[in-house]
Amino acid sequence: AYLTVSIEPLPPVVVGDAVTLKCNFKTDGKMREIVWYRVTDGGTIKQKIFTFDAMFSTNFSHMENYRKREDLVYQSTVRLPEVRISDNGPYECHVGIYDRATREKVVLASGNVFLNVMAPPTSISVLAADTPAPFSRYQAQNFTLVCVVSGGKPAPLVYFKRDGEPIEATPLPEPPAGTGNWAPRNLLHRDLDDTKVPKSLTAEGGVGGGQPLATADPPRGLAAERDPVTEIIPETVVSRELPRWVHVAEPIYYFRHTHAPVSDGTVEARATLTWTLNPQIDNEALFSCEVKHPALSMPMQSEVTLVAPKGPKITMTPTRARVGDTVRILVQGFQNEVFPEPLFTWTRVGSRLLDGSAEHDGKELVLERVPAELNGSMYRCTAQNPLGSTDTHTRLIVFENPNIPRGTEDSDGSLSSHCGFRLVLALTLTVILELT
């Protein structure tokens, strides 16, 4: 007897598809059994998923009744109604027939096929690296967008666009020398902002320092490799809305793409786009991360628009603060959609905060048990991101608290002189009445 087995090859399938595995075999012997296996752990484990035993089936061939040799073609199928990522891998079809010469001997043959299960990405997001953090608009600095794509198999093709046009970026397999730390630097102090000084004073570092620095073409590349360029604006004050450096050429983009396997068999892909940010041309620029994948009929994308904060909306609770209350001042939003996430800094105009600190970082400023002395105090919230900064102010009005008689307690909790005077006067009157 002879036996040949083959499994029809399968194209890649997508998660959720119905798949039929087909095992074709030709023989002139009598069927004994058919067994399907799913192979795991690199071939060390074989899990039975289907068994056909001819000894217990009425559907058998009467080939032994014929003296002449006769070929019969069979097909065994296994259907997977909704494939999952875990179904990915090799499958084997094992066929056994009785030998024509001796019924005690079984002839075995097998075939195998690999089921390639693809999964489209389940999520895509774009975020800014290392934010929120201080970022100087007055120095050329690097800015990095990160695109995270999860749930795909195999790894997707990820690329960036600016204002709908594909970005031609230089591949960056490893961090370039000198740019390993992309942490942004602090903003210049608003009271020491040298952009408000006439250029004739800053060009040579002092009063009457001569002509402004000449504008030079900066080298193309990352900010760590780029020298600042001074605008030629003699004898004028530069607005805070404009940085002191400008680009004289199109920005150079650097692109890095990595992917890491996930325990469920999918891949997390990360793509980064780095360039030297210029708030003058990058503010309100639309960047999109797009993904192509064989399991997707059309690209998948996520968009962000780089925008400086504008018009913070501040709320104060309670709306009518009384002496001794805990007051919370909170930034609830802006007049526009802001990206990247801003950094918030609180200060008290003309003085320190209630806890003695010069400033406080965060969306919320909490003033514990406000004293009457804070009535009329002004608080400033500075919101800044790499595209710009904005200030907003709010005034705290503190009302008397009927549960705390006026003047009974100073901010340090001690009795006031007025309270002591009233107490002495009351005791004196009591003694006089007893004597009379």
Automatic annotation (TrEMBL):
Q: Where is this region: Disordered?
A: 198-222
Mention any one GO cellular component term assigned to this protein in its UniProt record: postsynaptic membrane
* Membrane topology reported for the UniProt record: Lipid-anchor; GPI-anchor
Biological process (GO) annotations held by this record are: heterophilic cell-cell adhesion via plasma membrane cell adhesion molecules; homophilic cell adhesion via plasma membrane adhesion molecules
Subunit composition?
A: Interacts (Ig-like 1 domain) with NRXN2 (via Laminin G-like 1 domain) in a trans-interaction manner.
Name of protein: Immunoglobulin superfamily member 21
Q: What is its main location?
A: membrane
Cross-referenced InterPro entries: Ig-like_dom, Ig-like_dom_sf, Ig-like_fold, Ig_sub, Ig_V-set, Nectin/Nectin-like
Free-text function comment from the UniProt entry: Involved in synaptic inhibition in the brain. Selectively regulates inhibitory presynaptic differentiation through interacting with presynaptic NRXN2.
What are the residue boundaries of the Ig-like domain, all occurrences included? 16-109, 312-397
Keyword annotations of the record: Cell membrane, Disulfide bond, Glycoprotein, GPI-anchor, Immunoglobulin domain, Lipoprotein, Membrane, Postsynaptic cell membrane, Repeat, Signal, Synapse
Please indicate which superkingdom the organism of origin belongs to: Eukaryota
UniProt organism field = Hemiprocne comata
